[in-house]
């Protein structure tokens, strides 16, 4: 059974005021980036936006036409893979994008190449991030990457990077190496900004602690920071020069936000200077106390 059958269309979610407002603000930011920074200075981004601006420059077609036409197949792929709600959100985002690109007049903000690369990326990142928070996307590469991920076993990041590398090589060949390098700055700026907009400061991080004073660390995390923990049974030791010396220990794992991790690390280091800690970013959390507290 396909996901589109499992997830019936929820019009209240698709047409909610918050969702529509996020899409409109996000699309407006994207249009400001395209018309105020990118096109006047012949700068490009990665993804379908970069391809659309290339088509606009080569064939002098309104950029909204290739941008929308290139995205439409991915609306269908999104419908088949992620369901009707995702396809509806994305289609509405594309309609807003086409309308605002046609009617919104944006003057050239600056011709300074560095400012164009950075602030063009900032506005694109804001736009993409807000649209994602509104439930849709305006770049089908995310959809095709997720779809190809299951077919070929490559990660979404690997697929997107491979496609964007091809785009940047084309830019370097036709528009020069300098334009390609500035476009890479734009792409990575947009990527980082969209990550912050989507995840916010509540991006979750896994903190793992191995300490000889595990009871002290557990009490600190649970009682002082009010965080749930998971305990794994492990071994300390096996060090160079003393390989045969080892001790049973408890490996403590907790999940915290970006804002909390620094404070917690300092508290743990103060309580036990010998504690070993390492941090991992978490892409997704589902279920349990963490999900209920953060809304993830």
From TrEMBL:
Pfam families given in the database record: DUF2179, YitT_membrane
InterPro entries: DUF2179, N-reg_PII/ATP_PRibTrfase_C, UPF0750_membrane, YitT
Keyword Cell membrane: yes
Stretches that traverse the bilayer: 20-38, 58-79, 86-107, 113-132, 152-174
Domain DUF2179, residue spans: 246-287
Main subcellular localisation: membrane
Keyword Transmembrane helix listed: yes
One GO location term (cellular component): plasma membrane
Location in the cell: Cell membrane
Membrane topology: Multi-pass membrane protein
Keywords: Cell membrane, Membrane, Transmembrane, Transmembrane helix
UniProt name for this protein: Uncharacterized membrane-anchored protein YitT (DUF2179 family)
